[in-house]
Predict the 3D structure of the following.
Amino acid sequence: MNDKVNTTSEQNGNSSCVGTCTNLHNDALLSLGPKNRYSEIPSIRLFLAKYNTYPSTLDCDNDDEDTPFHATTILNYIRDELKHDITKDCVSRRYNRTAKQKYVHSRLSDLGNGIMISFNGSHLDSEILNKNQLKADYDGKYFLVVSDLKIYHLPEHDSFAQDLADRFSQMTVCSSKSCMLQMVCRNQCGYYLDGIRVKKPLITDLALHYGNNFLTTHDKILNDLNKKESKGIVLLHGVPGSGKTHYIRYLIQEVQDKTLIYVSPDMAKEISSPEFLPFLMRHENAILIIEDAENIIQDRSSSSLPSQAVANLLNLSDGLLGDAMHQQIIATFNCDLTAVDPALL
């Protein structure tokens, strides 16, 4: 790609272009541009004012919201390769109280050749999977990322703009994926769900974390969880700190199109409550995640007052209720296997 497109003699664009407005008064010309929202740089109006032409727009859309553009890499490219002076850009700054850093939220770069680049909605992100070992832009491992990136250009520079967009598409970072976990809560009106967001942990090699033999088990678990109208129970056993919860954080990011219902340890006993099953019946085709489930999976024969919890789990995972509700269960526990009700094993 050439450093510059030689259009300096075409300050007002091509007069045959449908968007050229050489005879319009400035006020009338600027009225053609859309009204800008609060704190947003009026990119199209500035383009109109400089080039007297309504610009063609190339929206550098990124289909994956978890791979935003790295604003700093793009700025370095247009500065070093296109010889653009970024100190002349129009910028809007914000202050991030968490990072305690001032950063450029919006930027308009005029390459001086009938091409402007708009960065809108930039923000600081510390949850970056830095596979390419990029240097963080700010202390605290914060990266400046942007998803709304547009190229405004004169129509005759369509090919150049496309080449530029292709270059930018390679200048992305991977943000940690997250999913919404619905936590079971209770108030005076009964049970309800409250969403919490869970980030995907960086696990690049499952075998390294959990052993080669676990890979086949993982594939089977994931395949079963992603089946439609499925049921069953997955029991994850291990000593405290062995990585059960870490694995669940990873696993649930791979599950598609299902409600994930989290039952915290202090709510696990509610499984035996008569009101709990009717509540679950409102959430068909969901996955129930129960941490520290020792109290609800204990062998019924070992207690003089056996809990209804095991029966409820069995009915949900392999009974008539399971046939109707299509719910799956993931439960973790630390106790010895001999303490678990045989019907669950």
Summary: Residues 119 and 149 are 5 Å apart (CA to CA). The chain has two domains: 26-175, 178-344.
